[in-house]
Amino acid sequence: MSTSHAEFGERTTGDEVVSAFAERVKDRIFVVTGPSATGIGATTLTSLAKAHPAALVLAGRNPATFSSVVDEIKRIDPNIKVVTVVLDLSSLAGTRKAAAELLGNADIPHIDVLINNAGIMATPFAKTADGIESQFHACHIGHWLFTNLLLPKLRAAREPVVVNLTSSGHRFGTGDFDDINFEKKPYNPWAAYGNGKCANVLFSVSLTERGIKSVAVQPGWVGTDLGRHLTDDVFNELLTVWVPNTPNIEAIEYKKTLEEGCSTTLVAALDPKVPAAAYLRDCQVGEDVAPQAVDRVNAAKLWEISNALTGETFA
């Protein structure tokens, strides 16, 4: 199954995607989580800026880490409304505060595209202040809550899209989520990462069922600081245990630049031909998504678990 541009692939850049869909950027409003200057969220934003959106919202834990991104956006186009929001995805209270700030911002009357880009990977075991395993909280629960709270402004847009960034590691997740805090089995950083990344794909399934187009994106192997928590032992375990024993996980053959790493996100956000609830990799619809990550029963169970963990009752 092709997108609108069958020629796009692993080496396509974000600028190329935005150029192809400039009319889908102009005068629209985009929200991006995890916009730090060293990640693909930043290049996603600066690529979008070149096609003159009405507003770009940068939502991250520490504005100092993305102040240079704000400056670059303003240099590209000083007419863009740039909004920064302090968003701590590892805190339920912090996530609610950020969502309330956006809901109350009259300069952001609606949200055309929400890109849930932020995440962490293979961290040592820890629980957040809300009692949730840290990777599952930061990668899934924070975005799940943020997105649901922002639904009024998403539904106010003509064609809202939510893009959830996942990874090949979604195949490490079982899809059952019966032991998020590793109370029944020993903690493993890759199993925890797999839980969060599998949940990202299932979240797109659930959102689409609820009338909001959502797409899960595997950006590829990109040179960011996502792996800053990796020790040699943990990385070797990935290469010698998890990758060889995980069906259909692709070999790492090409390390992408940041500009190439943001391109699949932008295809998901801008190309109207991309199907709802699709899984994209290398700018095309991928057929190699793990079955447990698109199972509607798993998606429904995850939704109820997310409600329980956050104390919400989202339908």
From TrEMBL:
GO terms for molecular function: oxidoreductase activity. Keywords: Oxidoreductase. The keyword Oxidoreductase applies. Pfam families: adh_short. It comes from the Eukaryota. Coiled coil: none annotated. Belongs to the short-chain dehydrogenases/reductases (SDR) family. This is NAD(P)-binding protein. It comes from Exidia glandulosa HHB12029.
